[in-house]
Amino acid sequence: MDLDINFLKQIAINVSDLVIPLIGTKEGANKSKRGAGGDISMEIDLIAEKVIIDTLEKANVNLLLISEEVGEIYIGEEEKAKDNQNVLIVDPIDGSNNAARGVPYCSVSIAYAIGNKVSDIKKAVVLNLITKDIYWAEKGNGAYYKNTPIHVSDLDISQKCFFELNLPMKNLMENFLKLSPLIRSFYRIRILGSSALTLCQIASGNMEAFINLRESNRLVDVAAGILILKEAGGKIFSLSGENIDIGLSINTKFPFIACNAALKPFLKEELKLNKY
């Protein structure tokens, strides 16, 4: 059974209905065990994920769920899920620390694939938990904000480009110094805290690039955003300039560069010069 985009939107709405009252509260920020994605789960994360699982079980679907807290579990009949190759990759709360502290930049990210690689992602939904605005895409049919088609900007590096920079704490200053010529080329830097939403900002033309050098960046954070960005005419690639088409797994982690089409040649050349 092919999951409908409206069903994916409804899952996201179900999450938002339950977690919005918890954003910025002590209850929502209560820490639990370490999730499969590697971070300490908070109550708001666990509640969001439970909503997703409950919604899937009620819909009688058969699929592999890859989620930040539980890791990988089969919903419905495992053999049927393996046969149909349906995979749902979710981050119940992308930007958990923002949500816990009441910083208004967090989302729920849902990507649906038929297959086992990033290129097999067919549909995607990212819902802004503060505004309830939905970004979505279907492979080959474009990307949308609410019901309006979106597209990346056409700004090049000579214009006033915005970008987000996410660096690992290890060798922080070394990385910062290596990137300083590139950083000076941009008009403004942003560090926002929800990778899914930032990819949607680039897809909408509100920002131009996202440089994420963290090797611990998880697939669940960006799976939906990747499709939305691509369908909006954007580009995403590895630090060596290669296409990202890796396996769908809770253990999949990778750094990346995301940008509009105009910036791709510049960014690839800068990374090559800085030997990334």
Please characterize this protein's 3D structure.
By secondary structure, the chain is of the alpha+beta class. The protein has two domains: 5-149, Fructose-1,6-Bisphosphatase, subunit A, domain 1 (Fructose-1,6-Bisphosphatase, Chain A, domain 1); 162-273, D-Maltodextrin-Binding Protein, domain 2, CATH 3.40.190. Helix content is 34%, strand content 26%. It has helices spanning 5-19, 26-29, 43-58, 78-84, 96-101, 172-185, 195-203, 219-231, 264-273; strands spanning 31-34, 40-42, 63-67, 71-75, 86-94, 107-114, 121-128, 134-138, 143-145, 148-149, 162-166, 188-190, 209-212, 235-237, 256-259. It has an eight-stranded mixed sheet, with helices on both faces. It has a five-stranded mixed sheet with strand order 12-11-13-15-14, with helices on one face. It has a two-stranded antiparallel sheet with strand order 1-2. Strand 3 and strand 4 form a beta hairpin. The longest helix is centred in the N-terminal third of the chain and has 16 residues, at 43-58. The model has no long low-confidence stretch (mean pLDDT 92).
Which key phrases capture this entry?
276 residues; alpha+beta; Fructose-1,6-Bisphosphatase, Chain A, domain 1; D-Maltodextrin-Binding Protein, domain 2; 2 domains; eight-stranded mixed β-sheet; five-stranded mixed β-sheet; 9 helices; 26% strand
Shape: globular
Average pLDDT: 92
Query: Which architecture of the largest domain would the CATH scheme give at its second level?
Result: 2-Layer Sandwich
CATH topology of the largest domain: Fructose-1,6-Bisphosphatase, Chain A, domain 1
